[in-house]
Amino acid sequence: MYLIELHNGDKAIVKRINGGTNLTRRLLQMGVIPGVEIKVIRNNKYGPMILEIFGNKVMIGRGMASAIEVG
């Protein structure tokens, strides 16, 4: 399952980032690290997603979210 598929309020653990070096580096800098719990604050199916990671709110694009495998 991928992060893009989750709904508002859902929580999941990051399993893997399926992307290139630049995408992976950028996500790691934002705290999207395998093993970390992510909560979806907003996923309206259009526009960017808002996530909560380590108590901080982070906005990511839908392309990035579709590269994050969660469980």
Automatic annotation (TrEMBL):
InterPro entries: Fe-transptr_FeoA-like (IPR007167), FeoA-like (IPR053184), FeoA_core_dom (IPR038157), Transcriptional_repressor_C (IPR008988). Transmembrane segments: none annotated. The keyword Iron applies. Residues 1-71 form the Ferrous iron transporter FeoA-like domain. GO terms for molecular function: transition metal ion binding. Keywords: Iron. The keyword Iron applies. This is Ferrous iron transporter FeoA-like domain-containing protein.
